[in-house]
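Entry 12.
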Amino acid sequence: MTRAGWLLLAVLGLGGCSVDVAKLTIAAPQPLSPAVLRDATSRGWRDGESCHLWVLGVPFGLPQIDDAMQDALQPVHAVYLRDATVYSVHPTYLLFGWHCYRVRGEAFG
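Predicted 3D structure (tokens):
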């Protein structure tokens, strides 16, 4: 294989992709009461992530959107996200990579 061919293979192998999965007005890991929605205050914009490794195409677990939401909510003791976007992210490094769900939204609690 030529040097250009190896370079192209390396660039493709170090790639990855990110896809918007959903845009949600309100996202919560548990049902919310009307009082919680009415009385909650903003705790700022937060990001959360849930990732699992794969090697040679074999996954070692699957990421969970609920875990990504908890990762965003827990540090600020919030209970739901408003205007949340869920992403499916797949960084790859030749023979291994990650399957991740990332969530970003305004946290309220």
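Annotation: Residues 16-108 form one domain. The chain has three helices and five strands.
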